[in-house]
Amino acid sequence: MAIDKFVSRHIGPREDDIKEMLKVIGVQSLDELIDQTVPANIRLEKPLNLSNGLTEREYFRKILKIAQKNKVFNTYIGMGWYDTITPSVILRNILENPVWYTSYTPYQAEISQGRLEALLNFQTMVCEMTAMPLANSSLLDEGTAAAEAMHMMYSLRSRAQEKAGANVCFVDELIWPQTLDVLITRAEPLGIELKVGNFKDAVAGENWFGAILQYPNSNGEIEDYAGFTKAVQEKGCKVAVATDLLALALLTPPGEWGADIVFGSSQRFGVSMGYGGPIAAFFATRDEYKRDLPGRIIGVSKDVNGKHALRLALQTREQHIKRDKATSNICTAQALLATMAGMYAIYHGPEGIKAIAERVHNIARLLAREITKLGYAQVNKKHFDTIRIDLPRHVKREDIEWLSLDLEMNFRYFENGQVGLSIDETTNIEDINWILEVFAKAANKPVPVIDSIADDRSVDADIKRKSKFLKQEVFSKFRSETEMARYIKRLEKKDISLVHSMISLGSCTMKLNAATEMLPLSWIEFNGIHPYVPKNQAMGYHELMEELRRDLAEITGFEDVSLQPNSGAAGEYAGLMVIREYHKSRGDGHRNVALIPSSAHGTNPASAAMAGMKVVVVPCDERGNIDVEALKAKAEEYKNDLACFMVTYPSTHGVFESSITEMCDIIHQNGGQVYMDGANMNAQVGLTNPSRIGADVCHLNLHKTFAIPHGGGGPGVGPICVAKHLVEFLPAHSVMNNGHIGIHAVASAPWGSASVLTITYGYIKMLGADGLTEATKIAILNANYIAARLKDNYGILYTGENGRVGHEMILECRHLKTAAGISETDISKRLMDYGFHAPTLSFPVHGTLMVEPTESESKEELDRFVDTMNAIFDEIKEVETGAADAVDNVLMNAPHTAEMLTANEWTHAYSREKAAYPLEWLRENKFWVPVGRVDNAWGDRNLFCTCEPLESYK
Ligand SMILES: Cc1ncc(COP(=O)(O)O)c(C=O)c1O
């Protein structure tokens, strides 16, 4: 490995290590191992046709040139994206900080208390701004949040409504066009009819179940919806309201005028526009609907010692358990961005947020006044940040457009020729004068000069918020940068991330998120661009996205790629909708059966249900492989209605099933399409591909295989890659031409989470064809090395025909439970005492641990993990033989906090030293777990999902 090559930084083991590891596995060479692992009939015949890997320095030059092709104008388009100032203390300590961006979804609560607190703050902020009692954290974007609201209202129908087949959801016509676009996509397969109209003329009919409004609406107008809401609710329907968190600092919040659901984007709370994303959507509702709330909820609970502790609440609603009956398919959300938005509220506090909102409003008022003086008409009666301007007859819209572009500004242009301006927190005096210059010159009037914004009138009294918000102590405590940085650090110290130790979560691919891949994210040329600017201002983005699409198509063997879906599950949904549309185009619209193996991830059946499909489960045999005979029987049984087969490859059992091509053939022979879940693509890149195995469409988790970090539960990017016959159905967009002409949008932004695509782009460009293939081989090597070293103690549940695992393996733990009463949960909690995050727990097989080391871990780290697992095995043996107490042992009491270990009283049957320092290296490098084992059931019984009010601290 040449030392200046990025591959030598991305991959963990050195050449000598590889030799030793191969010896332990029992093969002569890496190629021999790969031959034994990946079936010959699916291997690629040619190397990937991608460019050679660049050094980090070369890549920097390349990405800098691309960045310079993007033009950062002042943008007043609004429509759901606004320029915002990310406080530098948040930028540096969260967005650019690997402890925050490389950590995983907080399923292991004890080592996630920092990000759990940050997300609880986000939820509290949402509840406070919207005046709703319960919020989640978080959803993918505003459009999908609207769809979740529609779905939730639909499932909350009364018995009578259900019986009567009430299926109409009213949508006010002045909702963002992209939100309506996503609603159209999501309504149709569920049999929901959207009735789009003006709320002022609408009367709830017997067949309604809900209504969706926007406040302020798409024109920027602030309507009084209280009467409409009451009338609709009196008919037994629910009302969901899209809103703007900043506006709610001034306006009566929807929770105070009766809304059942309040949702929207939190982007303008310090998260850059990023050419569309990623951003975190928020979603709040009434307490009585808690079991129907989509997405993750952070709740307060306590640990074994009675200490305050946080964890994910009410998980039984989620797809992991409920599968096709889940409230939603959402898994990866936008945790990192939610964390940032919550921190923005903490940084500014109630008075700061209000001051920003007032300033924005005052600038909008000032502009309205001055532009009116120039002979224009401002048509919004009541507005917050957006004014809509009617041009006098002698002023041409084109003149406004070229004058504004000349001054590097983007305005919004309505279909009827009116011009829109949405003001944001970055707008200053200079900007105001430029805007006025445009309107004055277009009207042939002298250019006015403004030298102050001083106009501290707030919104009209009848719409003005009277209630206080952000009352909790956390929102008033950290004003100085020193205090803020320390608070962020304090939270950070409670969490395990990739900078602490390997995170061997099977199916999650926690690989290196290289600093060079991450750095461009902070550049304004990538993050300062609104998704609706003219394309010639985003040429860098388009060059990057074109190349990325081409590279991903090459890697998957498919024809084209849609970058729009914002997570793996969103990709599944998009792919299934594409399949559905394909069948419809052939007069096969009745095909609605999705065959899904019993081992599938919960999002698969949940996505199929959302796409209007009926889920039929296919069993696996005792070796963990899909039962091909059963698959054949089901495919034939349902051949008239078969829509698709959803298959993860290599399987969620970590095995390359050699019958995969046969399975795909069976599906095609019976009229179905094959959807490949690409979560395990890290075992395929360069060796095989979804097209080669016979699939028609797949999603990729760029946040797994392609180096986008997990961010504590998002961002995610789940592009779908399709064969030629499906290209025409890829998701389009109602506002921007994104190059596709197929189904309606599946996300708000035309190109999804565009800004983080820079990470994947860097990953592919720096590894190049050889490096990517090498990475796959080493991922398989690392997994087989761990399997070889752990198989005797634990047992590897499934292997391929030659006894090899793919890039991950399932460690058997059930015999330990039988012999010693120690569960897989006990093992994962004990791992925390050793400084490790647990592998994937009880998925896809209950009572097991699934380990995926990735190619980025060095032999030394793998050995540390293996030594730890073996030390834990010895501890279990002590319980089994009676050398340790059956209940009072290091495993069942794990994790041990510093507080427990240093208490004056120590009553346990083992020593403090054994609890804290079971292996020598822990004396040098110890992670101190902040809380003991968390009581999940208590938290769910006493659901509490906001941070404590100020009084309770006194
Ligand atoms: C096999 C599999 N499919 C789908 C998903 C869902 O992907 P996402 O979390 O990006 O929505 C996961 C996530 O872990 C997975 O492991």
How far is the N terminus from the C terminus?
Answer: 60 Å
- What does the largest sheet look like? 7 strands, mixed
Question: Helical residue percent?
Answer: 25-40%
DSSP helix count? 32
What structural class do the secondary elements suggest?
Answer: alpha/beta
Enumerate the spans where pLDDT stays under 50 for 5 or more consecutive residues: 950-954
Which sequence of strands runs across the widest sheet? 2-8-7-6-5-3-4
List the helices and strands and how they pair.
Blueprint: H1 7-10, H2 15-25, H3 30-37, H4 56-68, E1 74-75, H5 88-95, H6 98-101, H7 113-130, E2 134-135, H8 142-155, H9 159-164, E3 168-172, H10 177-187, E4 193-197, E5 208-215, H11 226-234, E6 238-244, E7 261-265, E8 281-285, E9 297-302, E10 308-313, H12 319-322, H13 335-373, E11 377-378, E12 386-390, H14 397-406, E13 409-410, E14 412-413, E15 419-422, H15 429-442, H16 474-477, H17 481-492, H18 515-518, H19 524-527, H20 539-556, E16 560-562, H21 568-585, E17 593-597, H22 603-610, E18 614-618, H23 628-637, E19 642-648, H24 660-669, E20 673-678, H25 690-693, E21 697-700, E22 720-722, H26 757-790, E23 809-812, H27 814-820, H28 824-833, E24 840-841, E25 848-851, H29 859-881, H30 898-902, H31 912-916, H32 936-941
Parallel strand pairs: 1-13, 3-4, 3-5, 5-6, 6-7, 17-18, 17-19, 19-20, 20-21
Antiparallel strand pairs: 2-8, 7-8, 9-10, 11-12, 12-15, 14-15, 16-22, 21-22, 23-25, 24-25
The chain binds pyridoxal-5'-phosphate (PLP).
